[in-house]
Specification:
The structure is a single chain. Helix content is about 20%, strand content about 30%. It has two helices and ten strands; from the N terminus they run ααββββββββββ. The strands form two sheets. The chain has a six-stranded antiparallel beta sheet, with no helix packed on it. The chain is elongated and about 115 Å long.
Length: about 180
């Protein structure tokens, strides 16, 4: 039999039985009021779904932002600081030329001038650009802002505040060894 009309109509309620109490919004099955059931627990579906969707959203946000943050903030490199380091072969730096090597946390340019090696920091003291050795002018030149340095790293001209840091370089066998000055 198909029913029409309001489900909670008085006619329907009276047909359910003598003295049937109308359903209250705060009742749960078993006839106990909601407040007497589990204290402090909210079992409404909407609240539960809000928490589940919020948790899933938080997981998606964290899993998306974690790689972005790891890309933006690079890991700290731990470089073992040494007083002396073999960086390459003597044949890599021909007469009148210079080559940049990594020494501890600094880049060092080694110049071969008539068989004698000179080593200074390759990082310009103005803005941190790498300097180049120009053999024709017998000087280091910074391509960023035109800073010029002597072979020993002393300032010739330009906006730089300090000279280049000096290092010691020597040849043992066929190896170039750089050490702190």
């Amino acid at each position: 039999m198909a029913q029409t009309g309001n489900f909670k109509s008085p006619a329907r309620m009276s047909s359910l039985g003598q003295g049937a109490a109308p359903a209250s919004a705060g009742a749960v099955t078993g006839g106990k009021p909601r407040e007497e059931g589990l204290n402090g627990v909210d079992f409404e579906r909407r609240g539960f779904l809000h928490k589940v969707v919020g948790g899933v959203g938080a997981i998606v946000a964290v899993s998306t932002l974690y790689p972005v943050v790891k890309f933006i903030i690079p890991p700290a490199r731990k470089i073992k600081v040494v007083d002396e380091l073999t960086v390459g072969k003597a044949s890599e730096v021909p007469d009148g030329k210079g080559k940049i090597y990594q020494f501890n946390e600094d880049k060092v340019i080694v110049v071969n001038k008539g068989g004698a090696l000179t080593a200074v920091s390759a990082v310009c003291t103005h803005l941190g650009c790498l300097v180049n050795w120009v053999d024709a002018d017998n000087q280091y030149f910074c391509p960023c802002h035109g800073a010029k340095y002597k072979l020993t790293g002393e300032i010739i001209s330009g906006p730089q505040p300090r000279p280049l840091k000096q290092y010691k370089a020597r040849i043992e066998g066929d190896s170039i060894i750089i050490s702190k000055a």
